[in-house]
Each structure stands twice: as C-alpha cells, then as structure tokens.
Amino acid sequence: MSVVSVVEAPSYDGDVIYSAVSKHFEALGVAEDLKPGMRILLKPNLLYGKKPEAGITTNPAIVRAVIRWLTGRGHKNIVVADSSGGLFTAEYMKSVYSASGLRVPGIEEYLNQDFTFGRKAAREGFETRAFNLITPVLEADYIINLPKLKTHAMTTVSIGVKNLFGTIPGLQKPDMHRRYPETRDFVKMLCELCETVKPNLTLLDAVDSMEGNGPGGGTVRHTGVTLCSRDVYALDMMAVKFMGLNVFDMPHLAAARDMKLLPETVTVTGDDLIPCSPAFKLPDTIKSTGFDDSVPKLLRKPARFVLDTLLRSYPSVDKSKCVGCGKCAESCPQKIIKIEKKKAGMPRKNCISCFCCQEMCPVHAISVKRGLRSL
After folding, report:
1. CA–CA separation, 58 vs 53, rounded Å?
2. What is the pTM of this model?
3. What is the dihedral of CA 307, 192, 157, 98, to 10 degrees?
4. Residue 193 contacts by C-beta under 8 Å, 6 or more apart in sequence?
C-alpha cells in the first residue's frame, strides 16, 4: 500500500508552505529516514529561467520550506540541483537560478555548483542499460523530488516521474528524444530513469499549476494544494485524478502499469483531494481531434488510431513573435531547425514531434499544427 499526503496551501506565504511541508513529513514519517551526515538532494523543476509567477518552475517557497525543515533538524549537507533544458554549465545555471527566484537567503547557499556528470547502470532487463546523471544525483544519500504540476506537449502531464528527466545533464536530453522519438518508448525510458534515480520522497508544488500548452507556454491555474509521497507513481496517479483526467490516458502511467511499477492500492491522507472542475485543459498536441461527439463510443478508439496513423502534430513558428534567440534550434534533437535572418525555420521533414522547441521557446512563438505524416 502506498500513501499520498494531501495538504491544502492557498498561497506561497512562507509560513503557509512550511506548515504544509511539516504536515506532509510528519504524516509520512520522514524524520525517521534521515541520519546524521546524509547528503540530501532537492531536485526542483527548473525548465528554464523564468520568474516564479509564470508557473513554469517549482516555486522558491517550496524549496525554502523544505530546507528550513531539514536544517531545523540538524541536516546541513543539502544541495539544490537540476539540469535545465539548456546548457549544464555554471554560467547558464546561474542565470536560471536568478530568474527562478532561487538566489535568495535560505536557498542560495545550497545551490549546486558542480556541473559534472557520471554514469549509472540501470536495472537488468531495461532497454536503457545506463544513464548519464548529474553528479549531485549520483552522490546523494536521500533524494527529495520537487516537481511542478503541469501539462506537457509530449507526455500530456509533467509531474513526479517526468521531473526526473532533469537529472540527465544539459543537452544530452535532446539525445534521449532522438533515441526514443515515439511517445510510448520515451515514457518507458522515463520510467526506467525513475527506477534508476529512485527518489526517496516526492513533494508536488500544485499551489499554482499550469494547464494548456505546458510545460512552458501554458496558462497558470491556481489550484491551492500540495501532495507528498514516498511512491512517485502513486503521487502521479493522485495528481492526475486531481487534474480531473483519466490516470491511464497518461502515457507514462500506462507504461508504468505495463512494467508492474504501480502500487496495488493508494491511500490518501490529510485534506480531501477534490478533482478540479473543469478538468485541466490539455495541450494542443493532445487535444481531441474533434470527432468524439459524432462517432459512436465503441468506434472512437479505432477511429482515433486510424487518424493518428495518417496525421501527426507538428510545431509551427509564428515569425512575428520569433526573436531569433536560437533556443529551439539548441534543443532540437534532430538538429533541423535553422535560424536565418533572426527567425527560426522549422521544416516538417525529419521532425519527430517531441516539441522540445515549443517547450524551450521563451516568447511562446511556437504553436501546434496537424497535418499528414511526412514519409
């Protein structure tokens, strides 16, 4: 049986969040896990440098509250580390820390300054035999995963399991997209990564969440809750239900079920977890193709399969918004995006529809179009 703790948090006020963290950790007996001298890693979601109000990154109040709780119990060997969507270098991460509101007292002194990585073998039988992981992950004795509740253009949602993709260093992440271009294969890889990193605890920031074209271009939605669990899959399942969505419509949870990683039962403790109404808006890449109301229910699944076989979603750039920063080209696994005359060009040929370009565009100049699959 897995336990998911739920605590309402109406704002990011420091005392409100600290109280929520304390209730979670007490409910789950976290203090009993921690031994003197343990190296504790906090892994937030730092997609790229953006102010906390944008709802793209884990709010600093969450990070500060966890540090406050740990240091209040004598734990000092703490590091806050993530590898964002861009380069994994001191200069780039310094800019991400600043923009994300992390360079403040109570957090700044714990920010990661080691930008090396190493390799860790995965479980026998996994398709991915080993992962390159940032050094703070490899050195940690205890990992606290701090995701942000968001929708996601490729994986539908970004919660606990998806947040661990940030343990792969810098621009090696596009290499993983190139290696696993199909969603079903990519999410299986995410589950294998999750089993390799093995977070000890996951605490979800769902005070302000993101719906629509997440993880970087959606709309902020105030949801006023935090979730915490030792079982990242159980937490993701309950978070999806909270979003008003179907658990097994989420590709990574369907993959986890097939891999027999899901708990048999999940118990929710603390506050009531009431599904959002209306349900979270999905990304344009995931939205219904528009025939559901006109096609008999029994035929909807095969009809969608046929349509998805013929059609595919592709990124499209609005050149009136494009500033030519090159973030899309930098993040493209296929290296097909070119910046010419300070504008991005996005050919459909050889595009694998991973939407890394849309994810990393800082000015939201990239949208989704649907057309015939290129051969």
Report:
1. 10
2. 0.92
3. -130
4. 122, 128, 131, 164, 165, 167, 168
C-alpha separations of 2 from 269, 289, 306, 368 in Å: 11, 36, 38, 38
**DSSP class of residue 320?**
T
Structure tokens at 330: 């930098």
Which top CATH class is 297-372? alpha beta
Give the pLDDT confidence of 119-164 residue by residue, as tens digits: 999 999 999 999 999 999 999 999 999 999 999 999 999 999 999 9
Single out the residue of 233, 194, 191 nearest to residue 2, CA to CA.
233
Tell me: the pLDDT tens digits for 54-78? 999 999 999 999 999 999 999 999 9
Cα–Cα distance, 42 to 44 (Å, whole number): 6
174 in Cβ contact with 356 (< 8 Å): yes
Distances (CA, A) of 283 to 336, 358, 365: 23, 11, 15
Q: Cα–Cα distance between 310 and 304 in angstroms, integer?
A: 10
**pLDDT digits 0-9 by tens, 273-289:** 999 999 999 999 886 43
- Secondary structure of 39-102 in the HEC alphabet? CEEEEECCCCCCCHHHCCCCCHHHHHHHHHHHHCCCCCCEEECCCCCCCCCHHHHHHHHHHCCC
Domain 2-270 sits in CATH 1.10.10: no
- Tell me the domain boundaries of the chain: 2-270, 297-372
* pLDDT value, residue 290: 41
Residue 33 makes CB contacts below 8 A (sequence gap 6+) with: 142, 200, 201
The torsion defined by the Cα of 359, 364, 366 and 370, in degrees rounded to 10, comes to 90
- CA 278 to chain centroid, in Å, comes to 22
What is the rounded CA–CA span in Å between residue 71 and residue 324?
44
